[in-house]
């Protein structure tokens, strides 16, 4: 039995919670994954996993071995990288999930530079605004806006995004220019396009806006809610309502005359944009160089302006 393969199979079963998903991620059969873990248990003479028809759970011995196996696999990967002389130019696969507007406007246009620096690193890019389970989806890191809800993840802030409100000229021609946030409320004259995650069932968050010493919270009136950033912006450009979003998303549309900033004398709290990853996952050279590169890209783009 190859101890490396067995430990790798065991770790993937724990991370995915399934022999089937572990086998798929390792590109082996489910039978092979099962046999590797069984032989590992036989060699150690302990049960590492409790198996039922619905779930796989760690035993107390399995939990201890899992943490040690993670460190051993990480040390082995670093050792192989140093011997192969690729520590300065990491290779392999890196799986990342980012919001759709961020991918379109920031990340994808900058990727030629990334691949020029790291030609042996294969990036698998998920583009979505959905909630991603890093374990089940086997993702190395995600980029998301807002306060990190999952406290089991490590978050590194990339930037604080300036927030502002916008509307299309056609919409303003019909509804007029709003002068106070209360006009966006349910009984107001204006309506919002709302951003709402359909899969997670989250609610539309109220708007907190401030001008001088006056601070108001508005639960906007909306006839449309979308869960994709690009579709959200497109809805505003189409004149379906007022948008409240990071300012960098509006730059091109402002220049093209497709959007106009509204309520410009009112301010909203900045939206933190962070990259998050699992703390119990070895921070590989691949992930480190990607995060450092991403920080440089965000700083160059001036997304806080």
From TrEMBL:
Keywords from the UniProt entry: DNA-binding, Transcription, Transcription regulation
GO molecular function: DNA-binding transcription factor activity; sequence-specific DNA binding
InterPro entries noted in UniProt: LysR-type_TF_proteobact-type, LysR_HTH_N, LysR_subst-bd, WH-like_DNA-bd_sf, WH_DNA-bd_sf
Pfam families membership: HTH_1, LysR_substrate
Gene Ontology BP, a term: DNA-templated transcription
Record domain HTH lysR-type: where: 1-59
Family listed: Belongs to the LysR transcriptional regulatory family.
Protein name (Swiss-Prot/TrEMBL): LysR family transcriptional regulator
Species whose genome carries this gene: Luteimonas viscosa
